[in-house]
Amino acid sequence: MKITPVRGTHDFFGQQVIKYRTIQDLISHYSVIYNFEEIITPIFESTELFKKPLGENSDVVLKEMYTFKDKNEDFLTLRPEYTTPMIRSAISNNLLEKLPKKLYGIGPMFRRERPQKGRYRQFNQINFEILGTHDISADIDLIILANNFLKNLLPEKKINLFINSLGDKNTITNFSIALGNYFKQNKKKLTEESQSKIVLNPIRILDSKDPTDIEINLNAPQISDFYSNEAKEKFSNIQKILKDMSVDFSINMNLVRGLDYYCHTVFEFKTSDLGSQDTLIGGGRYDGLTKLLGGPDIPGVGWAGGIERLIMLMDDIKPLQKNIHLIIINESFKEYGLKVANQLRQKNISIHFDYKYNLKKSLSHANQLGARFAIIIGEEEVEKNLCTLKDLNKNIQEKKTIENIIKDLS
């Protein structure tokens, strides 16, 4: 019986692992530059953590969450996103005593969606969150961080930034009422899925990818007509600062993001190179979410990025070469050879050993892999407590003590 991966999951190996580690290292670099602390949370949480914040009638909660009952009859859910678990952790561990709090995390998420290019049922995600400030500088910082990260990682790719504002709670309420009335008038033209959202949450219809719904959305009320003076000023200031910092962006009034906790700033970085799954990074402001999760009434803003989609856009990375090969020409010299390898590795010198005891085959293998040096262990080397260091590029070799080899290779 051949066991295959579960539908919607995939393995990382070869170039994918190299690219994943590259992303991880770059994210770690930017976390230091922007003063974010890493946080690691469990991959499953109480189901209640996700239900209300994500919207009990949202697609994520209704269709996509992996929820199960454990032996204590508690309902648990594999995390479908990272913002709420990070906030839950900040509350649980009393991390919000000094504000603002800047946190980031990387890890697997789980959603039972229809698998397609760039969309998996288990996927890896990066999150950056700032808790405890209303200042639009936090929104700007996160947008600039994402912009710099993407330009560094994918310098040759065309990536577009789209921004919008959902305004304050009154803006969202009044806009939702107006949208509901508009979609009721056009109900028969909408897809069946969007029709079901008219009463539950008409704003979600703006997020539809169906061409029929998109055409109806073109004439829908604009959220900008419902902004309060404060919301209008915030959004205007964000645009001005981004322009002053030479960050290119476009305004998309139908950009609402897929979860119910957003308000004010929302943004997405998109590419045209991945088909319909075109969002690389998305986020926005979620004032009030921390209070909803049982914490203090503080604002928040953050973004998430999908690692698999980033990997799909990256060029192959040349792996580190196995530059130094250990060649033990006879198995009876194995003990001495392994001691030599251990001494070198303790000095942080990378050694490759192919577990073969044949000089000719091992040299051939080393040359095939582009090795620069070979350390050869034979009878004379063992007797005199030496090693032969062979420069494979220059085709010269010399017997040396292990101490001198360490100096030469360090």
Give a brief description.
The protein is an alpha+beta fold and 410 residues long. 38% of the residues lie in helices and 21% in strands.
Description:
The chain is of the alpha+beta class and about 400 residues long. It is built from 16 helices and 16 strands. The strands form three sheets. The chain has an eight-stranded mixed beta sheet with strand order 1-5-6-11-10-9-7-8, with helices on both faces. Strands 13-12-14-15-16 form a five-stranded mixed beta sheet, sandwiched between helices. It has a three-stranded antiparallel beta sheet with strand order 2-4-3, covered by helices on one side. A hairpin with a 4-residue loop joins strand 15 (about 385-390) and strand 16. Helix 1 crosses helix 12 (about 305-315) and helix 5 (about 135-155) runs parallel beside helix 10 (about 230-245). The radius of gyration is 28 Å and the shape is elongated.
Based on the model shown, name its key terms.
single chain; 410 residues; alpha+beta; BirA Bifunctional Protein, domain 2; Rossmann fold; eight-stranded mixed sheet; five-stranded mixed sheet; 16 helices; 16 strands
Radius of gyration: 28 Å
Q: How is the largest sheet built, in terms of strand order?
A: 1-5-6-11-10-9-7-8
Task: Describe the main β-sheet briefly.
Answer: 8 strands, mixed
Care to count the β-strands?
Answer: 16
Which spans of ≥5 residues are poorly predicted at pLDDT below 50?
none
What would the principal axes of the Cα set say about the shape? elongated
How much of the polypeptide forms β-strand, as a percent range?
A: 15-25%
CATH architecture of the largest domain: 2-Layer Sandwich
What is the number of domains?
2
Could you tell me the CATH topology label of the largest domain: BirA Bifunctional Protein, domain 2
Relative helix content: 25-40%
Distance between the termini: 49 Å
Q: Tally the helices: what do you get?
A: 16
